């Protein structure tokens, strides 16, 4: 991944004198720690400071910083070079860039070949490393571009590297002399003004100037935008808190004459009646999925039902602790007043009139307290994600015992639990009935080298779902009792099969990938690879056919669902922005495929001239005017998941009437260095030139150009706002850390934000 920038982008801000002095102080301090008594840094120490083991650019920078050719860098040499790069003008920075690319004798192509493609390091007394030929020839450019590809973690075949070299060289060699001079390079770079203004070098964090100090007038939670975008959730929380306070107050006042501790216990008990029933309501997935199709979905925060379930669980544990503590305090008071009974007798002995069935309120209460504590302890993320899912699963099944004990413990709990309990039982019966209907056949398994398992499962009869919905999957051959949620990545219009793309991140998903990797698994002949796939070694296929009875028995599966997600709102939006990070594309893959099917249904052609066009997609079920699809991946290989789908989408759009695109795609590769980085500027320019020439991206093969680095969300959302296609809604599926960043930008621009939650 790209490392922090050595110098701030020119034009973005000017370092104050205090910031400049503090940065220089940090550089001097870190330099002293590395250089030691000799007060100089050699190549290995320089590479260690940059946190790289082997880098062409680290050695090039070292030689350029080593102005006297001594083979070491002094503090004065380092500060002089950094001052030029931080405070120098564009010509100074371009001159440095040119010298990086001018890999010539004595460190040129022949010298580099003698050292495995890396120029040799000079020793004291050697000629200046700046003494190149003064021009860049094709071999030098090819060598540098090869290292640019390595720095950006991009793998391209040699013939593609040759195409990139040729495209950049032909564009920069204005006089067709067979070499690029400094003036020609500057002229070519003038066509990329954003690069000229923001030329930086990636380096270690200790070389980075201090970031600008962000000053905020008030916390984010006190802004008007935050309250506007979270009004549904905040209103729900306010109502929830208010209802609990009301229940507590009414119950406590009713028993106020029996002592303070008993009043507190009764108040908490009434709140527990409500909350223990409400826990069931929040996990009625089928009912919640049905509610998503009603107007109430615009009022209630159905998307956060799992988060609220966790919140209510913590509230139940806290109320139970206070409830138990208040009763213990009251029993202690009674024991002191009575003098004949000890506290233990009040807690452990059944007594008529003590509450509960047969006077067992104390005993059932203690049992409930223990079960609740165990459930909370084994529901923590560290248990679920550390390969102990079955511990979480079995301890969570104690909800059956908890509800049974609550019916025995509280005389009025049944009134609260009657309706939620019946609905919960009904959902479970429906789920069990569908599972008992028989397992499903895994038609095909596609293993991707990025450790993603693509399952193609036969679609059950009468299985209806919406784009973006998810199911719970159980494969007995992997784990008998484990059910895991996965988004359906195929479109509802695909009648015969369901697709699931499962990334190997935990114990179960890794077992799944390894299970289908076993060469002895299929009894039938595996599906042969096509020539291109065999050459690229990018996929392994396991085909389950009619002859694979043994595999079918071992690799059968069960699904429970479908269940709705926030993405159901996409088709009723006006301007939808879909953001997927990595495997987070799966819900949007289903949506994009559904859009493609709708394109095909509305495609029309003239019988006379065979001109084809697509009718307006908007109807009563789809009000979309514009879709922006943003896919962020760490490296090149992760784009393989859905490139074929995106290619088809581009082709479908290209066939419609020319004009503004309904679907606009944006690809980002975070491991690639940005265009304003000296280690990548040549590569990104070459990729731009070749993409413009061939009308396709060299990384993905799409027409959409893959952008290096991370999106600038301010620029992205500003562009979306300027399009004025209607109310903007942003849908995200990915890491929680990135969700927080995007949510903050959505609040700033006034966009609605929805995130996938399981």
TrEMBL record:
Pfam family, one: EF-hand_5
A GO cellular-component term linked to this record: NADPH oxidase complex
Secretion signal, residue range per the UniProt entry: none
Spans traversing the lipid bilayer: 234-253, 311-331, 391-408, 576-599
Record membrane topology: Multi-pass membrane protein
Gene3D superfamilies membership: EF-hand (1.10.238.10), Nucleotide-binding domain of ferredoxin-NADP reductase (FNR) module (3.40.50.80), Translation factors (2.40.30.10)
Keyword field: Calcium, FAD, Flavoprotein, Membrane, Metal-binding, NADP, Oxidoreductase, Transmembrane, Transmembrane helix
Tagged with keyword Iron-sulfur: no
Gene Ontology MF, one: superoxide-generating NAD(P)H oxidase activity
Biological process, per Gene Ontology: defense response; superoxide anion generation
Annotated ranges, domain EF-hand: 53-88, 160-195
UniProt feature coiled coil, ranges: none
UniProt keyword Chloroplast, yes or no: no
Cellular location(s): Membrane
Location of the FAD-binding FR-type domain: 435-569
Protein name: NOX5 oxidase
């Amino acid at each position: 991944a790209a490392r922090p920038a050595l110098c701030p982008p020119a034009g973005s801000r000017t370092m104050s004198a205090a910031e400049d002095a503090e940065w220089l102080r940090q550089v001097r301090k870190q330099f002293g720690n590395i250089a030691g008594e000799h007060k100089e840094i050699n190549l290995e120490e320089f590479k260690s400071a940059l946190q790289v083991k082997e880098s062409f650019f680290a050695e090039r920078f070292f030689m350029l910083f080593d102005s006297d050719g001594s083979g070491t860098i002094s503090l004065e040499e380092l500060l002089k070079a950094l001052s030029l790069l931080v405070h120098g003008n564009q010509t100074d920075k371009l001159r440095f860039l040119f010298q990086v690319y001018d890999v010539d004798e004595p460190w040129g192509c022949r010298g580099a070949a003698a050292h495995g493609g890396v120029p040799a390091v000079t020793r004291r007394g050697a000629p200046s490393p700046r003494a190149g030929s003064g021009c860049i020839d094709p071999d030098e450019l090819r060598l540098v571009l090869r290292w640019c590809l390595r720095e950006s973690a991009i793998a391209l075949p040699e013939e593609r590297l040759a195409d990139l070299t040729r495209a950049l060289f032909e564009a920069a060699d204005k006089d067709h002399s067979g070499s690029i001079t400094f003036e020609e390079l500057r002229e070519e770079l003038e066509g990329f003004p954003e690069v000229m203004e923001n030329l930086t070098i990636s380096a270690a964090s200790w070389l980075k100037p201090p970031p600008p100090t962000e000053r905020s007038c008030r916390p984010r939670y006190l802004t008007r935008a935050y309250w506007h975008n979270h009004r549904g959730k905040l209103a729900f929380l306010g109502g929830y808190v208010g209802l609990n306070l009301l229940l507590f107050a009414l119950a406590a006042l009713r028993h106020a004459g029996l002592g303070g501790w008993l009043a507190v216990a009764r108040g908490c008990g009434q709140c527990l009646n409500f909350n223990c029933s409400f826990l069931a309501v929040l996990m009625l997935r089928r009912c919640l999925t049905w509610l998503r199709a009603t107007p109430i979905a615009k009022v209630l925060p159905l998307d956060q039902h799992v988060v609220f379930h966790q919140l209510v669980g913590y509230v139940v544990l806290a109320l139970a602790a206070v409830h138990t503590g208040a009763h213990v305090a009251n029993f202690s008071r009674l024991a002191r007043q009575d003098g004949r009974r000890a506290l233990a007798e009040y807690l452990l002995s059944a007594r008529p009139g003590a509450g509960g069935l047969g006077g067992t309120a104390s005993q059932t209460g203690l049992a409930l307290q223990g079960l609740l504590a165990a459930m909370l302890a084994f529901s923590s993320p560290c248990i679920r994600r550390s390969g102990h899912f079955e511990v979480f699963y079995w301890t969570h099944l104690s909800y059956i015992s908890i509800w049974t004990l609550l019916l025995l413990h509280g005389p009025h709990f049944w009134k609260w639990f009657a309706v939620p309990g019946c609905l919960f039982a009904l959902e479970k019966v429906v789920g069990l009935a569908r599972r008992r209907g028989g397992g499903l056949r895994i038609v095909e398994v596609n293993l991707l080298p990025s450790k993603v398992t693509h399952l193609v499962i036969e679609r059950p009869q009468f299985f209806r779902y919406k784009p973006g919905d998810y199911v719970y999957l159980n494969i007995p051959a992997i784990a008998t009792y484990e059910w895991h949620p996965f988004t359906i990545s195929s479109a509802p219009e695909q009648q015969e099969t369901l697709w699931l793309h499962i990334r190997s991140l935990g114990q179960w998903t890794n077992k799944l990938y390894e299970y289908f990797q076993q060469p002895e698994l299929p009894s039938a002949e595996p599906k042969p690879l096509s020539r291109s796939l065999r050459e690229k070694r990018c996929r392994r296929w396991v085909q389950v056919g009619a002859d694979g009875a043994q595999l079918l028995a071992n690799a059968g599966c069960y699904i429970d669902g479908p269940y709705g997600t926030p993405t159901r709102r996409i088709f009723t939006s006006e301007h939808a922005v879909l953001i997927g990070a990595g495997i987070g594309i799966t819900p949007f893959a289903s949506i994009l495929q559904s859009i493609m099917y709708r394109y095909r249904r509305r495609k029309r052609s003239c019988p006379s001239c065979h001109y084809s066009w697509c009718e307006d997609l908007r109807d009563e079920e789809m009000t979309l005017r514009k879709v922006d699809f943003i896919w962020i991946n760490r490296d090149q290989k992760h784009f393989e998941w859905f490139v074929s789908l995106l290619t088809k989408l581009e082709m479908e759009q290209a066939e419609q009437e020319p004009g503004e695109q309904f679907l606009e795609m944006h690809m980002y590769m975070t491991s690639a260095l940005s265009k304003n980085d000296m280690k990548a500027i040549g590569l990104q320019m070459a990729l731009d030139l070749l993409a413009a020439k061939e009308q396709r991206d060299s990384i993905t093969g799409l027409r959409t150009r893959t952008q290096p680095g991370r999106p600038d969300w301010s620029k992205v959302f500003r562009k979306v706002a300027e399009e004025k296609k209607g109310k903007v809604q942003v849908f995200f599926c990915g890491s929680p850390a990135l969700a927080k960043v995007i949510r903050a930008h959505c609040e700033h621009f006034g966009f609605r934000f929805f995130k996938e939650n399981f």
